[in-house]
Structure formats: C-alpha cells, structure tokens
Amino acid sequence: MWHRLTNRLLVLLWLTLASIPVPLPPLLPALIPCAHAADVPGNGWDLAQLMAELGKVERLDAVFEERKELAALETPLVSSGFLRYRAPGFLEKEVLQPQHALYRIDGDQVEIDTPDAGQRDFAVDRYPGVRTLVESIRATLAGDETTLTRYFQVRLTGTRQDWTLRLEPMDADVARRIIAINIAGRAERVLRIETLESGSDRTVMTITPTSGAAP
Amino acid sequence: MKAVRLQIIAVWLGATLVFGGLALFATPIVTQISQIIPRTDATADLIDDLYSSIAARMVLIAIEGDSEQARSTTSMRLAERMRTSPLFVRVLNGPASLSEDDLRELFSYRYLLSPTVSADRFTTDGLRQALTQRLADLASPFSPINKEYLPGDPTGEFRSLLRLMRGETREPAICAGVWCSPDRTRAILLVETESSGFDPLAQRAVVSEIERRFAEIKGIADVSLLLSGPGVLAIQSEEAIRTEATVLSLTSLALIITLLVLAYRSVRVILLCPLPLLSAVAVGVAVVGLIYGGVQGIVLGFGATLMGIAVDYPVHLFSQLRSDQSVSGAIRRIWPTLRLCAATTAIGYLAMITTHLTGLAQLGIFSLLGLVTAAIVTRWVLPALLPATWAPPVPIGQSRMLARLLGLRLPARPIIAVTALLFTVLVAALAIHPPAWQSDLAALSPIPAPVLAEDARMRSELGAPETGHILFIRAITPEAALHRSEELTARLQRLVDAGELAGFDAPSLYLPSQATQRLRRSALPDEASLQASLDAARAGLPFKAGLFSPFMEAVKATRNGRLIGVEDLRHTPLGLRLDSLLYPSEGGWTGIVLLSGVRDPQHLAAVIGSLGYSDVHYLDFRAATTRLMTEFRDEALDRLTWGAALLVGVLLWGVRSWKRALVVLLPMGLAIVLDLAVLTASGEPLTLFHLVSLLLVVGLGIDYGLFFSEADADPVQQRRTLHALLVCSSSTAIGFGVLCFSSIPVLTAIGQTVALGVVAAFLFAALIARPWAISRLSKGESSL
User: ipTM of the assembly?
Assistant: First the structure.
C-alpha cells in the first residue's frame, strides 16, 4: 500500500513539473546543479575570462558621445564622433562635434590632428601619462591583461552581462592626476568609459557599436 | 787592464742605473695631441678645453639581445644603479622625467626663461588666442595631463620652456619606455662621466664600474653590453695595441734570438746584444724627460723604432771576433767605420732639434743621444764585459757558404751606372706622381674601422652632441658670456634659416642674460591692465571666473621679483645642460656654442670673423688637427733636408772620397725611393710613421753601404763582414717584418716600410758597394 502512495506522489510531482511554464528557468539554478560555469565573478567567471572574450574582438567601429565635467569650466564639454579599434594596437578617436579633430595611436606612435595645433606625431612614451591613458582603453579592447596589470591595479565587479573594470594607475605621478578609470560593458562589448580625475573632474564616454563585434 | 775594465763596467752600470731610473720612474709619458703643438698657438688652449668638455666625458652604452621588454628592464635597472655612483654625473636612458621639485622650480621661473614671453602674449587678443587653445587642450583625451598648468599658465610658457629643454636635436626612438635604436634591436643609454675621457686610469675605472653594475642587474636575461665613446675607445685601442705589441714583440724577439743562436751559437752574445739598445733608450728618455719634463708617447714609439739600428752595432763586433785575436783589437779595427756610421746618422737628427715643434725636437734629441750612447757602449762597455780573448764558437771565417757568396764577381762600373739610372727613373716617377700625404688625424688612429663605425652609429642613434665645430666664448663674467651667446645665436639662427647650419646649442638658450630677462619682465603687464585683458579675453569662453588667479599672482610675483642666475638653475635639469655649456675657467668664464651640420666651415669662419668679437674663437677640430699635422710634416721635411745635407757632408769628410760616398749613398737612396715607389703604387698615403721608418732605413742603408764598401784584402775578414751584415739585415727584417702581420695600421705601415727598405738596402749595397770595393782592391788601392 505504501509504494502505491509513493507512486501517486511521484506522478503528481511529475505532472506539476510538466505543467509549469517558462518562468521556471530562474528557479532552475537553485533546483538543478550547475552544468557550466556561473556568470558571477568568484564563481568561475573572472578577469581572465573577460579578457579572453574581449581579446577575440578583432575590430570595433563605434559612435561615441563624451561629456567632460571640469572644475575649470562653467559648462561641461560635450563632443561626439567615431571610435575605431583594430586588434591589437590600433585605436582612433575621430571627433566630429563640436570641432573636427583626430587622435590616433598605432603601436607606439601617436598621431594628433587638431585645427589649431595642426598635425603632430610623437612616441607614446615621450610624455608621461600618455601611455597610461592610451592603454586604459586599448589594452582593455585587446583583452591584454598583462599590459593592463602593468599600468593599473585592476578590479572587476559585476557579471558577464554587466561588468565594470576599475583601473587605478600604478605610477604615483599619474595617479595624482587620474584617480581611476571605470570601464563598463556587456559580454565582449565595451559600452562606457568613465575617467575620474583630480579636482573632482569627470569624463564619461558612451560607446555605441555600429558594426558587429563578433569575429 | 782588469782594473780599467772594471772601472768601465762600473761607470756604465752606474750611468745606466741613473738614466734608467730617471727614465722609468721620473719621466711622465704625455699622450695628449695638444702637447705636440707649441703653446703659443691659440688652438692649443681650445683643444685642451675640448678635452675637458662634455664631449670628452661621454660614454655610449647599448644593450642587445633577448626581448624588447628584457632590454628595457635591463636599461632601467642599469641606469638606476649607475645613478648611485659618484663616477657618473648624468645617466640618460629615456625621456627625461623631471621630479616634482624640478617641475615646480622651473615652473616658477617660466616668465623669465620662456622664449615666447612678449608683450603681445598678454594683450586681449593674445590671451584670447591662448585661451582658445587651452580649451581645445581640455577637449583632447590628454586633458588629465595638460590641465594641471592651466590656472597658472594659460599662455603656455611652461610648455615652451619644456620644448626648449628637449631641444631641437633628434631624440632617440622609444621602445617600452626607454631609448632604443631606430631598428628597435638595442636599448641605448648616454652617460656623462665625472672624469675626462682622456684620463686613461679614470676611464678604466668607469668601464669596470659599468660592467660590474651590468653583471649585477643582468639576472637571467640573455642581454649583452656594448660600450663606446672617446674614453672607452682610447682604452680599447690602448689595450689592443698593448696586446698586439706584446705578442709581436715576443714573436720577433724569439725569432731574432733564434737567428743569433744560429749565427753565433753563444748565450753570451744573446745576453750582450741588447745592452747598447737598452742604454740608448734609457739615456734618450731620461735626457728628454729632464729637458722637457716628460716625453711624449709618440716620441717614445718613434724613438724606439729608430733605435733598431742600435742592434746592429754589437753584431758587427761579434762577427769580427777571432779566437786568436784580442777583443779590443777587433773593436779597434771596426771602430772607424762604426764611428762614421753612427756619426753620419746622428748628425742627420741634429737638424731636428732646432724646430719649435716639441715633438720633433724631442725625437731629435732622443735619437741623437741614443745613437751616440749605443756606439759608445759597443766600443767600450761590451769589450769590457768580454774576456780579453774571446770569439763565438762558430767558424765564421771558415764558412764555405759565405766564401761562395763572396766568390761572385760582379762588374762594378756597369752596376753603378745601371743603378744610378734606376735611381733617376724612380725619382722622376715620384716627382711626376708624388705619394699622397695622410693629413687626417683620424687615419692615424689605431682604432680599427669597424669599431669607429660602431661608435658613429651609436652616436647618431643617441643624438649625441657633435663636437667637430665649436665656438668658444671667453668672458670675465657669466653675464658677459651669456650676452655674447645671445648675439651669436641670433646670427646663427639666420645661418640655420639659410641652410648653412643644421642647428646649434648655446648657454643662452637655457639661461637668458640679465638683459633679456629684464626685457621679458618688463613685457609683463601690471595687475590692472592684465585683469582687464583677461576678462575681455574670457568673454564667451566657458572658463570660470577666478580660475586664473594663480596666473595673476605669478605675473605679479615675477614683475616684482628678482632675475635668476646660474646658481638658481644649478640643481635643475636645465642647470645640467647649462653646466656643460657655461663654466668657470682660467681668467673668467667660458661659454660653448656647439654647431651641428656645418655645411661650409670656411664660410662660417668668415661669418664669425666678420662679427668682430675678439672673445669668440671658432674651432674646427678636424681642420685644426689637419693643419697641425701638415705643419708637423712640412717642418719635419724641412729639417730633414738640412739633416740630409749635414749627413752627406759628414760622410764625405769621413770617407774622404766622393766615389766611396757615392757607393754608400746610392744603395740607401735606392732603398728609399723604392720604398716610396711601392707605397705610391699601392695607393697608400704617407703618414708620419712612414717618415720615421724611412729615417731608420737611411741609417741602416748607411751602415750597410759603409761596411760593404770597405773591403779587406783578407778573404777571411771579408767573410766576417758579410756575416755581420747578413745577421744585421736579417734581424732587422725579421724584427720589423713581424709587424706586417699586425692589425693596427700604424704598426703595419712601419713594418712594411722598414722590412722592404732593409732588404732593398742590403741587396743594393751588396750589388753596388761591394763590387766597387773589390775592384778598388784589385787595383791595389788601400782600403780606408
């Protein structure tokens, strides 16, 4: 008689489960043991994985919008234009509004073209701090953990779908001027770069990819 | 007899010890080129300055191997270690990073130092232009870095100053944060040492210090170190010469000893042969040292070469010794010829003593005294050191080979005629196509060409300052020097614009004269007008009000403050640059303006001269040294012409027969012109070393000519003479022939010239002088 009761309970359980619609998935992780790595850092997904994913991205063409809040100015500076990246060392920021300007780095060579100062190029290491600023974006896009950790103290928070990299410059002289750079993104896409500077100055750049980021 | 012998030995020993002691311990060897020229020449002072200038104190370092990152790390660690050592004034391996203190200090001086300060900058228009640019700077991605100076320096004077410091000169490429070669295969460093590059002891310490530090920090990296620079090259060349010279000397010594053993089979001979030579060198060096307070290295080398003839004198003696005759008898027999030999050659050097070129005069004294000493030692001391009757255990007189050689009968007159013709032909050929003269000092350098090429490469990679063309400013005060420097740079800038000059570096670029500073200070507007201009300029731009109060403060402070001097910049990077271009010297201060890329030195000299500044001197290093070399050569040739005349005169007086004089001089002359002809044909330009080698050939030629032309009726005697001459010529040919295998061009030149000259002199003397002597014998005339 007992096993007949158990059988009925089991059938009821099965029917109950079979009739539960899609909302079940959120409960599944609690009910079903993990078959693959979780998306929470510390739970399997970590900086190395993020870097690997970012590293797979070979090119990026995006539109950016930048807003600079500087203590020296009464109104923020707003600009927009194109951002281009080609693995592993090419990064270009073409400003269209309010004035046309071009900032480009390829390997170790920096090229600048502005309306008042004209065209200039120099080695990235020539002026202190330039390398740090460049690598914060470029090394991140390239998924180059070695370079990032050489110039920054790196902290990763969030999940794979909504992560934030906090970069704090290692060099004391640079750290006086740049307190931290926060890079936020989703999966292999970098979406937002926030630079916290001395004197409570802040720059926020939002990036909207125009082409597919998949290889 | 024995007492006399002992006395002679005692005197000689005493004299040798005294002179030898003086020579070894009390005579400094001087190696600076500037010491060769007379002090009255203004160039001497300039070249001396050059030796102590920054150009002479540079060491160029390259690190090769492993990966770019490894090289960069090695470079940074090495620089760090080296900076802790007092041997190095500056160690530069990358973009100069200024300390915060340095920056702050220079920042406070910006309105006096910046070359762009002018009244226009502070008008409304000027400020508006500046502010617009600053706004663009803020919009750039590099704003975190360049916004720092905005409140205090909206016109960007500090930026102008920094740009000036970096200089217009090429800065090396940068790999992984440090300087590297353009092809990125090496990390490079530039070091300024405390000691001059021409102080060999100090530079040796520098080199070993660098190598030690490198070994310390190298770790597991597979990197290697390359050094260059004037001091390093000097040491390397010295070591190279020393090593080679030692090997070659030992080789030739071994070969000559073998020859002597074969010729005499006596240890005593081998021990006694070098005595005249050693005495000659000791006396020569000691006396020159006493007169001049030191002997020049180059004179020592030349003198030692010329003393090659002193080895021949004892050989003549030893070959003449017979077991059945006394030693003193033998020496007395050959003494007249030997004496004449020494006298004619020594007289030739007498003419060199009267020159005003110290190097030449020293050489003359050295050679003259040396030859005389060698002759005296051979005449009196060697017999005193031998038993009364002694001969080497080799039957020279009975030698059948020698007898056979002597048996060759050659017609004297036809030979003289033919050889005289040959002589004329060669002289004519040389007159039509004279040998070229090497007047470039660099060509005399014992440093091998690949090493020099490497040095040039490192120099250009580092953008190291050129030191070929320099303007020296002699002033009483630094202000006067700076003022003059400003006047010069204004003129030089025009030359740069015209393409006559690539660039220049001058002290006034880093520290303006008080006059200029005063001008800049007066260009700064007063507070009220500056505020008004600033407010007007700010209109429409989003800068916050009150942002630029640090700027206002700074301008006011500079307007009311004092001007800056050398002392203020002392501890800044600018000060370091300034130190090498402006320094206290005898009688005041010296300012240096370095010129690079001079297109036409003569035109430049004319331009500088036309300015009429009596305190400015232009030194074209290459031209100056070439001029000195040419002067040296011309003077030497002039003296030697007189010397030749004296030589012929003494010879004629000694042999009392112009015919004999002819057969003595003809082989010597032929050997010389043959040597010259071969040199010209091989396209090799003549140097001082060739000249000295030819002088030696002259001496040897006279020696062989005199001995060959004196034929004894006794055939045994003839064999002895031939034996002596064969040993003489072979030993000299071997001794100098070994030098032909040297990798140092100087030694090769000497070796080839002497070896060829000796063989030629011997053969021609044998062909010309001997048949003539024999023919005279058979005619029954008594030999002299």
Answer: 0.77
